From TrEMBL:
It comes from viral metagenome. The lineage of its organism: unclassified sequences, metagenomes, organismal metagenomes. Keywords: ATP-binding, Ligase, NAD, Nucleotide-binding. GO terms for cellular component: cytoplasm. This is NAD/GMP synthase domain-containing protein. GO terms for molecular function: ATP binding; glutaminase activity; NAD+ synthase (glutamine-hydrolyzing) activity.
Amino acid sequence: MEWNNILQESREKNPFDAQAWIHAKCVRFNDYLRDNGLSGAVLSVSGGIDSAVTLALLKYTVDLPDSSLQKIVALSQPIHSSPWALERARELCETIGIPLTVIDQSENHRRISQAFEVATGNGGNAFSKGQLRSYLRTPVNYFAAQLLREEGFPAIVIGTGNKDEDGYLAYFCKYGDGAVDLQLIADLHKSQVFLVGKELNVPESILKAAPSADLWDGQTDEDEMGFSYDFIEFFIGHYLKMTAEEQCEFLESLSPESREEFIRSRELCTGIHNRNAHKLKGVINL
């Protein structure tokens, strides 16, 4: 049996209840805010599905009876970004009913990369400059949180990492989009993030778009990783839970072509995990 068939059968056998998950998660989040004297939240809105769902969860929390969350700052920080990123962020905020604050950092990015090129002769390749985009957004997020505190709304920065990318692959910038105080969707596979988005009426323009961090022109997450989100869901949700004997039996059950493709994707997946695993350990004290 092909791995994608196993994944589909598992989804059908154990259907994900998006509505129940949403309510339970937001009640738990509200309890956390109340217990810690917090009333504000800051979120970077990229125009992608993860930040869209997270913002919708914040709005759901605000609307709970006796909600502790009183103020949300949704930030868009274009940095030589594709036009669709800001367009979708605006559409999302208009749909949900939360104001969007736009802080364009393109000039800051240009100045820093040029300064390094002048000082060292190396201004960075497309990947490095893409990482710089993510790093630059962190201080603005926390400055916004500080401003909320000044206004009387003690605030935290909310993350947008899911189970597949952040939980296993550590597919994030450690002190870029990984620099947050709390994650809301870290227990969701990417497919479940989309289901939650649909339940929360996230705009179709976001639900139908190929996931992309927009760190350079034409970048998509699946192209960069080299395998699909469905594969990583199967890999960490099923394959890694098999015994060594069961894994061998599974591989033998695949057609030669599928086996070769699976092994290729497995090597890419474990390679990313091993390369990034240090990020999951936090700060190391030697």
